[in-house]
Amino acid sequence: MRPHHIERVLFPEDVIARRVEELAAEIARATPDPDLCVIGILRGSFVFLADLIRCSHRHGLRPRLDFMLLHSYGGGTVSSGEIRVLRDIDLDVRGRDTLIVDDILDTGRTLAFAAARARERGAARVRTCVLLDKPARRAVPITADFVAFPCPDEFVVGYGLDYDSLYRDLPWIAAVTFTDDTRDSTAIAAARSPSEVPP
Ligand code: 5GP
Ligand code: MG
Asked: How does pLDDT run across 119-173, given as a tens digit for each residue?
């Protein structure tokens, strides 16, 4: 883990909550049959997914849920380019409308891989939904069907997203600033809410 601090909140908690509610409504409008299979890509999507499915319940969807655990990043901040499957889809998606949910669409490899896997398993229609879309580093031509927020090309954490397994618990999304100084790398501890974060 490199020395770093986390001060710049990109997406505060209330902004995320409002957008996730809207996104659930968008998905529900585009999904007439409430019998939807939702596949979350672990681990980064779990907080987003938990909020999204509860919002989608209010909009009439009744999803069946499953998870894939995919690794593309090792412990660093740059995608290794190779996807490893640590847990595959278990749910029977044959003939079903399927929505893949991931945290970030970056190079596109993870989402393209997961969508291909759902198609291989016989899903009738495969759509994709991401919390953050970072278009700057796309290596695979893929666009997500549903996007909560476009995101600058920075390494971000919080709301399920980690750096070296830390920060998934933050209720907001913040950019990581890498430093060479000796500041406490857990400077986030001093910033418990966006209003306390220095400008
Ligand atoms: P892709 O396969 O599109 O390059 O990478 C997508 C995966 O990389 C995401 O599911 C996410 O786990 C990880 N990722 C990409 N950008 C970031 C980032 O800024 N922060 C964190 N924590 N993970 C990222
Ligand atoms: Mg991920």
From this structure: 999 999 999 999 999 999 999 999 999 999 999 999 999 999 999 999 999 999 9
- Average pLDDT (8-29) is 98
Q: Which of 47, 107, 96, 98 is closest to 72 using CA atoms? A: 107
| CA nearest ligand 1 atom 19, residue | 155
126 lies in which domain range? 14-151
Q: Give the pLDDT confidence score for residue 75 in this predicted structure.
A: 52
The burial of 23, by beta-carbon neighbours within 10 Å (0-12 exposed, 13-18 middle, 19 or more buried), is given as buried
Ligand 1 pocket check: which of 11, 104, 133, 162 to mutate, most ligand atoms within 8 Å of Cβ? 104
Say if 165 falls within a structural domain.
Answer: no
Q: Does 167 map to a domain?
A: no
Catalytic positions are 106
